[in-house]
Amino acid sequence: MSQPNPQPPLLSQRAAVILLLGVLTAAAATGLTVWAGGAPAAGLLAGGGAFAGGVLFFNAIIS
């Protein structure tokens, strides 16, 4: 016998996909920056900017 779920999900599927794509974009930017010879701190800064830009971009194109 299954019990109903009393709590709604924390994030909608759309929000989860957008954040996941933002994290993947940030990881790619960080990895490419460090791989190209940049400092790890510069990679993290690039990843942070890529995350913000990626979330804004994917939010605009995913309806």
Report on this model:
71% of the residues lie in helices and 0% in strands. Helix 1 (13-35) packs antiparallel against helix 2 (40-61). The protein is elongated, with a radius of gyration of 16 Å. With 63 residues, the protein is an all-alpha fold. The mean pLDDT is 94.
Could you give a quick summary of the protein structure above?
This protein is an all-alpha fold and 63 residues long. It is built from 2 helices and no strands. The chain is 71% helix and 0% strand.
Helix content: over 70%
Q: Could you tell me how far the N terminus lies from the C terminus, measured between alpha carbons in angstroms? A: 36 Å
Number of strands: 0
Name the beta content range.
Answer: under 5%
Biggest beta sheet attributes: none
What are the low-pLDDT stretches, counting only 5+ consecutive residues below 50? none
User: Taking all residues together, what is the mean pLDDT?
Assistant: 94
Number of helices: 2
Class based on secondary structure composition and strand pairing:
mainly alpha
- Gyration radius from CA atoms, angstroms: 16 Å
Which H/E pattern describes the elements?
Answer: HH
Morphology? elongated
